[in-house]
Design goal:
CATH topology of the largest domain: PH-domain like
Strand content: 25-35%
Strand order of the largest sheet: 1-2-3-4
Distance between the termini: 38 Å
Number of domains: 2
Helix content: 40-55%
Order of helices and strands: HEHHEEEEHEEH
CATH architecture of the largest domain: Roll
Length: 164
Amino acid sequence: MPGAEAQLEPGERVLFRTGLHPVAFSGAAGMALSVALVVFLLIRHNDLPPVTELQIAIAGGLVAVAAAIPAFLRWRHTVLLLTERRLLVSAGAFRRREIAIPLAPAVLEQEAGLSGKLLDHGTVVMTTPEGNLSSVAHVAHARELVGLARAQARRVPRRGMTPG
């Protein structure tokens, strides 16, 4: 995605790249199932002409698709890049936020529930350079990203310090 890659400095090398896991569509899938149930019940329990039933089905399909658009855009536009010195994040469906976080051992955390452990996704919680907490949910390979970032943070010398 051009958002995070545009933040790369000349010569900066990407060590790990990830985005959102398909589980990010769970809300849209739940909405689609709810709409399908309502459409089914309307058609099944009412004596309607076939044209009206078709109109109800089309309207339900349009509602389900419209509800999935934000999830799709969020999935498409979210990327996390780990470089030698920092984590670059570009996230958001309509308004992207771009964050560059210098690596430090305590900057990143990963939270995974039961499905996260089973399906290899989780929420990455970051401390921004301003000291604010920011998080990205449903990140694919979140455990691996945080592990690599912590290992890389131990290798990177702090500014003003010389490796010794």
